[in-house]
TrEMBL record:
The gene is purS. The keyword Signal does not apply. GO terms for molecular function: ATP binding; phosphoribosylformylglycinamidine synthase activity. HAMAP family: PurS (MF_01926). Coiled coil: none annotated. GO terms for cellular component: cytoplasm. It comes from the Bacteria. Part of the phosphoribosylformylglycinamidine synthase complex involved in the purines biosynthetic pathway. Catalyzes the ATP-dependent conversion of formylglycinamide ribonucleotide (FGAR) and glutamine to yield formylglycinamidine ribonucleotide (FGAM) and glutamate. The FGAM synthase complex is composed of three subunits. PurQ produces an ammonia molecule by converting glutamine to glutamate. PurL transfers the ammonia molecule to FGAR to form FGAM in an ATP-dependent manner. This is Phosphoribosylformylglycinamidine synthase subunit PurS. GO terms for biological process: 'de novo' IMP biosynthetic process. Keywords: ATP-binding, Cytoplasm, Ligase, Nucleotide-binding, Purine biosynthesis.
Length: 81
């Protein structure tokens, strides 16, 4: 069994209001030097050998990410025993 991670992030040209709210909140914490924050999503899937790379791409593109406004990355993290 493998653990697959799918990272989903807003595309660079898409406004990220949650990220901007975090940047503004840093001032209240008296933390400076952070120029930008982008908030995304991380999905962890435990899959067996029957799930192909093409299947993982399909899951990410059609179910986990809204590809109009988000980019995604599929990463095979580790093999579970």
């Amino acid at each position: 069994m493998a653990r697959v991670v799918v990272n989903v992030m807003p595309k660079k040209e898409i406004l990220d209001p949650q990220g901007q709210a975090i940047v503004r909140a840093l001032g209240r914490l008296e933390i400076s030097g952070v120029q930008d924050v982008r908030q995304g999503k991380r999905f962890e899937l435990e899959v067996d050998d029957q799930v192909s790379e093409a299947d993982l791409e399909k899951i990410a593109a059609e179910l986990l990410a809204n590809t109009v406004i988000e980019d995604y990355e599929v990463v095979t993290a580790e093999v579970q025993q």
